[in-house]
Amino acid sequence: MFNTSKIIGICGLQGTGKTMLMTKLGQIAHEKSNSRTYANYHLSYDYTPISSLNDMNKMRNGIFLADELWLWLFSRSSMTKLNQELSKLIMLNRKRRLTIIYTAQLYRTVDILLRRVTNFVITPNIVKIREFENECEYTIKFKARNEIGQFLKNGIIRSNLKEMGSQYNTLEEIKGLGEKTPLEMGITLEKKFYQAISKKSFIKYIELLPYSGRTSTWKYDIIAYLPGKTIAIDIKGSGKKQVYLKCSGEDLRKKIKNAYDHNAIPYIAFPDNDSERLTDLKFWNFYKLDYYSYLLKLKQDPRYSKLIKNSIKLENKDNL
C-alpha cells in the first residue's frame, strides 16, 4: 500500500476506529520505509506537526496523516480560495512522493476533487478478538475498496485498542486550518514561562526542552538549576474551571520517576486563569508532584480551584 504515493480515505461514523487505524497505519509505514511522518494532530511517535498551508507546502517524501480532513476540504465550500489551494497541494502528492491518509465521517462531505483522486477507501470496525477473566480485548478490522467502489480486501490490525490508543490523544479536537493547534499553544506557554523564570536571579541555568523532552532523557518542558537543587517543570494550560493536564495517573507516575531518576524535584506550572501577563513569574503557580498526589487518581483534568489551593508562587528559592 505504501510502496508508491497514494491517497487513502478512512471513513466511518464516530467510534469506529478511524483515527486509531490511521495512526497505526502511519506507524507501520514509518517503520517499514523509515519515511517522514506529518500529521495535523498530536502523535506519541516522531512526526512533524501540520497546521497551515505553509506547513503543507513543505511536505516531501513521507506520509501525511490528516484527521477529519473534511474540516479543511469541505464539499460545500469547494470553490473557496482555501479549498482550491489545498486541492492543488494534494494533487501534487505523487511528484512530492507523499502518501496521504485522511479520515472523514461521511465520504460525501469531502471535496469532490479529493474524492476523485482517492485511491482506496477503508471502512474500519472495532471488533472483539478474545475474552479472558471477564475482560474483553478489542482490535480493528477493516474493508478496503478502490476508487470506483470495487471490493479489494479485508484486513485486521494485530494490536489491541489500548496499545493503539496510547499513540495519540483520543480527545484532541482538530482545529481549522491556520488556527493554533494545542501543541502550538503549549509551545507558546512554554516560551512565555521560560521568559518569566529567566528573570529570577536565583536560577543558575535553565533548559527549555523541545516537545516535552522527546529528544532527551527528560520528560519535562523546563529544567531549572538552582544552587543545591534541580527542578523539572511540566507546563500546563488552565481555564476558569480546570487545569489541563491531558495525561493519566500512569503518565504522571512516569514523570515523577523520571525526575527522581535525574535527582530532580518534579513540578507542574500553570498560569493564573485570568492573566495574560505570562512573562511575569508572579502570575504562575507551582504544584509539586509526588506519588501521594490526588492527581494520580483522577480520570479527568483537575479543577482549577482545588489545584490552586495546594500550589505556591515562586517568588524566591525558599518557596521550593
Short recap of the structure:
Helices cover 25% and strands 27% of the residues.
Structure description:
- The chain has two domains: 7-165, P-loop containing nucleotide triphosphate hydrolases (Rossmann fold, 3-Layer(aba) Sandwich); 182-319, Trna Endonuclease, Chain: A, domain 1 (3-Layer(aba) Sandwich).
- It contains eight helices and 15 strands.
- Helix content is 25%, strand content 27%.
- The strands form three sheets. It has an eight-stranded mixed sheet with strand order 3-2-4-5-1-6-7-8, covered by helices on one side. It has a five-stranded mixed sheet with strand order 9-10-11-14-15. Strands 12-13 form a two-stranded antiparallel sheet.
- Strand 6 and strand 7 form a beta hairpin.
- It is α/β, with parallel strands linked by helices and 320 residues long.
Could you list some keywords that capture this structure?
5-stranded mixed sheet; 320 residues; Rossmann fold; Trna Endonuclease, Chain: A, domain 1; 8-stranded mixed sheet; 27% strand; single chain; alpha/beta; 2 domains
Give the termini separation: 54 Å
Q: Total domains, how many?
A: 2
The DSSP helix count reads 8
* Cα-based radius of gyration, to the nearest Å: 22 Å
Largest sheet: 8 strands, mixed
Approximate strand percentage: 25-35%
The top level CATH class name of the largest domain? Alpha Beta
Ranges where pLDDT stays below 50 over 5 or more residues in a row are 75-79
* Widest sheet: strand ordering: 3-2-4-5-1-6-7-8
Count the beta strands. Answer: 15
Q: Give the class from helix and strand content and strand pairing.
A: alpha/beta
